[in-house]
Amino acid sequence: MKPFRILLIAAVAAISTNCAEKLATEVPYPEGYRHWTHVKSLELKDKHPLFKDFGGVHHVYVNDTGLAALKAGQVFPDGSTIVFDLLDVKSNDAATAEGSRKVLAVMYKNTSAFASTKGWGFEGFKGDTRERVVNGKHASCFGCHATEGKSDYVYSKYRD
């Protein structure tokens, strides 16, 4: 094999490895999450301590990989994904309704990629975009979830 061809193959392999490593530590966008199991809905109001960052209507979903663990209160397997879709609130005297999306927040289980946060990676996608707002700062989200160790760091519980 010619030296140039060997160098080219080595460069492509190095780039592929770097891309794979980067992708392994990124929380993927949850394609089709609205077709997953709906876990619950709630509204955080202005008296809630997290209102500034998370005030609004939350719809929580879990993928098929995490559903059995959520139902049984067990440790989630790798690939489990939990989403909360956070929307503004439109309210008047007669009704409360969803407004525009503020953020799509995602918890993604990958024990090897996110060992420092007990296997969970966290990401938020701004509004209706795929613009990442957590950008690898998983510890900032995990700080709040750390109190939920008995439920594998997940706040939501399954209700029959």
Structural account:
27% of the residues lie in helices and 29% in strands. The chain has 160 residues and is of the alpha+beta class. The chain has a single domain (28-151), classed as Chalcone isomerase. A five-stranded antiparallel β-sheet has the order 1-2-3-4-5. It starts with a helix and ends in a 15-residue tail after the last helix.
What structural class do helix, strand and pairing data support? alpha+beta
What separation lies between the terminal Cα atoms? 64 Å
Total count of domains: 1
CATH architecture name: 3-Layer(bba) Sandwich
β content, as a range?
Answer: 25-35%
Low-confidence stretches: 6-23
Distinct helical segment count:
4
Spatial order of strands in the largest sheet:
1-2-3-4-5
The CATH top-level class label: Alpha Beta
CATH topology: Chalcone isomerase
* Estimated helix fraction: 25-40%
Major β-sheet annotation: 5 strands, antiparallel
Number of strands: 5
**CATH superfamily label:** Cytochrome P460
Instruction: Return the string of H and E elements.
Output: HEHEHEEEH
Broad shape: globular
Radius of gyration: 19 Å
Question: What is the arithmetic mean of pLDDT?
Answer: 86
How do you describe this structure in short?
By secondary structure, this protein is an alpha+beta fold. It has one domain: Cytochrome P460 (Chalcone isomerase), CATH 3.50.70.
